[in-house]
Design goal:
The protein is α/β, with parallel strands linked by helices and 332 residues long. The protein has a single domain, classed as Ribokinase (UDP-N-acetylmuramoyl-L-alanine:D-glutamate ligase, 3-Layer(aba) Sandwich). The strands form three sheets. The chain has a six-stranded parallel sheet with strand order 5-4-1-8-9-10, sandwiched between helices. Strands 3-2-6-7 form a four-stranded mixed sheet. Helix 4 links the parallel strand 8 and strand 9. Helix 1 packs across helix 10, helix 7 packs across helix 9 and helix 10 packs antiparallel against helix 11. The C terminus is likely disordered.
């Protein structure tokens, strides 16, 4: 079973533009999609589509439209009492696949809400294979809250995945000695934020991405899955490093692609796959999601791992990273 925590859920509204985005212009939409979402919710949707047992934890009322939509979609939900309404996130997609996101902050959290979320996750973790902590934190939550929850899950039996950004991601990296997630999933920009490297170099050079990810593994992360956009992804574990190139696709919307990639990795791990095959399925899922509109999560029949190429990365002596993270990041 996969337990997902979406601490700051959202209604995701996607507008597919019929032309390029023009600031100040009058634009037409080809389609408007809206669904209950958030990174953890997206992963639970992918799990349900793949017939994998999942429970989605999030702050929402039992009888809210958000909870009702997910249950009508077949998801098992464990909502906890919220502090306010669900936020709305807006995504604009252009015909060439360019995506612009406008995310609202969400309802402010308090100590009681965070306690309810943590209790729900830790209780369910006893029966889970994986617990996924995903997305932004609501306003008012301490930056280190994900790190605290990950540390609390140590010894629970379930593996822990964390996919977040900005200050919560930095706080997690600072706490790797105690939090020790089994997998972190930054994109190139987020990975560069942690290591002080150039984001463009990390995204375009798999060896540079692997060297940056190795610093996080050396600091205590079990593995790092770094998604690199059109360049594919890199996986680094204590056993080695691999890069994967995606199949050719027409990009429709990148929203949810990272969530799908993380699910592909977790699914392969549940099947006892070796690291290269976990990476292969991760990239296959992410590519399939990018070829679909809005936040559409791919079903298994839309995923083509056979078209993903995976190769080991053997960094030369000049590319071997130091165990510690960069001083530039530590000063943040």
């Amino acid at each position: 079973m996969i337990v997902t925590l979406t601490a700051n859920p959202s209604f995701d509204r996607t507008i597919a533009l019929s032309s390029r985005l023009e600031r100040g212009g009058v634009l037409r939409a080809d389609a408007v999609l809206e669904q209950a979402g958030g990174k953890g919710v997206n992963i639970s949707r992918a799990a349900h589509a793949a017939s994998v047992e999942t429970v989605a934890v999030f702050p929402a009322a039992e009888d809210s439209p958000f909870t009702d939509e997910l249950r009508r979609a077949g998801l098992t939900c464990a909502p906890v009492a919220p502090t306010g309404p669900i936020r709305v996130n807006l995504t604009l997609t252009e015909t060439d696949g360019t995506t612009t996101k406008i995310n609202s902050a969400g309802a402010a959290s308090d100590h009681a809400l965070l306690g309810r979320l943590r209790a729900a996750v830790t209780t369910l973790a006893d029966e889970a294979g994986w617990v996924v902590l995903a997305g932004s934190l609501p306003p008012g939550a301490p930056d280190g809250w994900y790190a605290e929850v990950a540390a609390a899950l140590t010894g629970a039996g379930a593996k822990v995945a964390v996919d977040t950004s900005d200050q919560p991601l930095i706080a997690l990296a600072d706490a790797l000695g105690s939090a020790r997630p089994d997998i972190m999933k930054p994109n190139a920009e987020e990975l560069a934020l942690l290591t002080g490297d150039d984001p463009a170099t990390v995204e375009s050079d798999p060896a540079a991405a692997a060297a940056a990810a190795r610093r996080l593994v050396d600091a205590g992360a079990g593995a790092v899955l770094a998604t690199l956009g059109g360049a594919g992804a890199v996986l680094v574990t204590s056993e080695g490093a691999w890069r994967a190139t995606p199949p050719p696709i027409t990009v429709v919307s990148t929203v949810g692609a990272g969530d799908s990639s993380l699910f592909g990795y977790v699914l392969a791990d549940l099947r006892n796959a070796e690291p290269p095959e976990r990476l292969r399925l991760a990239v296959a899922y992410g590519s399939a999601a990018a070829s679909l509109p809005g936040t559409t999560i791919p079903a298994p029949h839309q995923v083509r791992p056979d078209l993903v190429e995976v190769h080991p990365i053997s960094p030369g002596p000049e590319q071997v990273p130091e165990p510690e993270l960069s001083p530039a990041r530590e000063q943040r």
